[in-house]
Queue: 3 jobs
Job 1
Amino acid sequence: PPYFMTCPLFGFGVGIENFFQHSSRFSDVSIFLSRQRGSALRENIQVLCIALLVALFIRTFVVQAFKIPSGSMQPTLQIGDYIFVNKFVYGIKIPFTRKTLIPIGQPRVNDIIVFQFPPNPKLDYIKRVIAISGDVVEIRDKQVFVNKKPFVDPYAHFEDPVIRPANLDHRDNFGPITVPANSLFVMGDNRDNSQDSRFWGFVRNGDVRGKAWRVYWSWDMEQPLLSLARLTSIRWARFGRAVHNDPPPPQPRPVPSPPPVTATPEPTPAPDSGTDVASGETATLPEPDSAEKTATPDTLAPASKTPAASSEPEREGKKRTRPN
């Protein structure tokens, strides 16, 4: 390039070189700060990675959050409830498989479980366990029988009083059928509005994800998301509420009450005037015979021993006619 262009560039380069040579301490500070910034960034990345791994471990093996989008478990679980599911209670499973690495327990009757929907494993369902392997289940007119005994279920809710026959569907009349091995028979608490084992079959133990534990959030999902109605629909009373998984307490046997004492009314004597109380008419009473009038039992009216006194004129006449 021409000379008049190279001289200014050369002078600027020399000036920059002299500045760095005479300010070595500033370069040391900048290097130190850059090193500190690099170490802090690395530490933040490490903390973030550890937190993600811990969260993934907890979600996979310990606790997972779910939301309730339908009313099949009402009134136990409401639409819009967000719940924690205990995944550790039934054992530690190998991720993405149905194999249990460390078995801890098995689902029991009355447990509310989250499981993979048998017709579509990509979906998760939540229902209550009614029977386990080997039990015989039968439903007659909405009443559930397990092993030929009525199933005590205070959580069941019915909305439709109509009883459907078995040839129409299996909602109100079903079975009897035996639960196969390593399987569960589940039903929703809202019996008249629940798609469960009555319609699509049994749940395999390997498909169970966990046991419902507690409600941590609840609001009305039918309201618009970004609206005042959604905010005012928050159900504060449901926060932290435990999900009913335990069997109902035994009901006390009713004490038989003594039979009621009924008082026998005494017969009302007929009025002396001979008036019929019901009709208000005068009844003609039959006259008793003369023998019945004079004959009186001794036990009721004893006869008098003293003769009747005569009148004074008769006594005076007797005195006059008495012979001397």
Job 2
Amino acid sequence: MKQKRKWPIERSMMIAKENIALTALCGQIFERNRETISIKNARSAIPNLCSIVTATLELSAEKGFEAMSLRDLSARSRLSMGALYSYFDSKETLARMIILQLVHTTRQVLHPALEARPRSLENARTVISTYVQLTSLMPTWFVFALVDMAKSAPELRTSVLQTEEAIELFVFDALRDVLKTDETTHLSVLAMLVRSTLAAWASRPDVYIKRDIGADEFAGGVTLLLDLVTGGEEALDQAMRSIQEQRIKFIYGI
């Protein structure tokens, strides 16, 4: 039986996997909202926040955030309505808590890569790989922010999209550095293409999972595009040989 690929963390990730675990994320939510959360005992509050966040992401994926009622959330999280109100005063507040934590984590992980200088092609690969690995570790969070919040809270979604904008600009600068051209229109199109490809990965991970495409394969495909654009015919020939080798391995199971 063919085993599903696991998504390892790229070495360029600047925080350990434990820091993206649900307990750690909810612990940070608790610390950020201590003043408004009425339960002050972290040992009690954090597990309940884990239940609330997990139930919210599940229900939102199943029926949409707008359609999710607090009664639905109470039943799924196994917390009473009164207990829920100990952590937030409305669905909008709950959504904000989740999105702001995603934004914080994304900045924490991606900031070192985005701040790398020079904005070279190699550093652009690191930025892309880091983002892909992060989204693969928090898929339900990104789907919630990018898809479910599109209508419910577009202003929150915008804060997540700023990361994609930063990646697009980084890729643009890297391409301009390598190609040494003043023709920025084509570079903008290529950078936008990379951004839209990453957005598709983050918002519809199920599409790639069904095709057994993991984070390493996807990031490799995106960075291969950059190599083809900047490497000329030699890079194209090398890419075609690599693709052919991968097809042979797939066909013969080797």
Job 3
Amino acid sequence: MLGEVSAKFIKNGVNSGENFDVLLDNLLEAFDEVLFVTLNYDLFLEKAIETVANSVPGAREALGMGWYIQDPHWKLVKLHGSVDWVRAFTPPASILGDLPSDNVRGTALEVLDKLFIDEVDLGEIELVLKWDRWRNGAKFLYPAIAVPVDDARQSSICPREHEQAAEQFLTDCENYLFLGTRGKDNDLVQLLSKSGACRVVGIVAQGEEDCKETQSNLQEALDFSSGPQIYYSSGFTGFVRDGGLADFLEASHRTGLT
């Protein structure tokens, strides 16, 4: 369902080639390499990358999970999974019973309801662009999505190769832009703890208090004292359209773009 909703929002123009495209276009033009880290499951960033970065049509389907970290100019790391990520598992024969081989999602959900699925039962994360079926022979496709229930508990479902690419990038990263996060997610904080020197920090939120809260929550992972801080309290759209993004890029230029 999340995948269908995300696809409909994009198709109906919620992303509309505007805010995400403008953001990515400016960042990719200004920096030699950009790491996008998201806790969201939707596909807005993927679609913007495909549009702005001139990704070869069909590249994501062809490259699978490697698509997210293969480009020298950008990387995309989704710590909590994605609506089009799955892991295959094979239910016990007693559960499969006499289900038809062309089973669709209705019966798949019935099977899921009957099972306790442990981590060891699941295969590697795969990219599935079309959720028209939840079954492939005896195997069912289980959504690769993490739903955090405790901020103090790690819940990352991201492939280790993706995390390693992010960690390597962060060791030399000096400019950070945070959009719509309170900085409470432990997976994000743990990843940022791998960071090197911090020169410019931009925080975008709905309100000044939210900006201050994000800074407070991230201070253990990042040193905010070594450079300018850009706070924009009018939300994402205002940041992109009303000068906040330009201010962040100007501050980054003054301190040296990396």
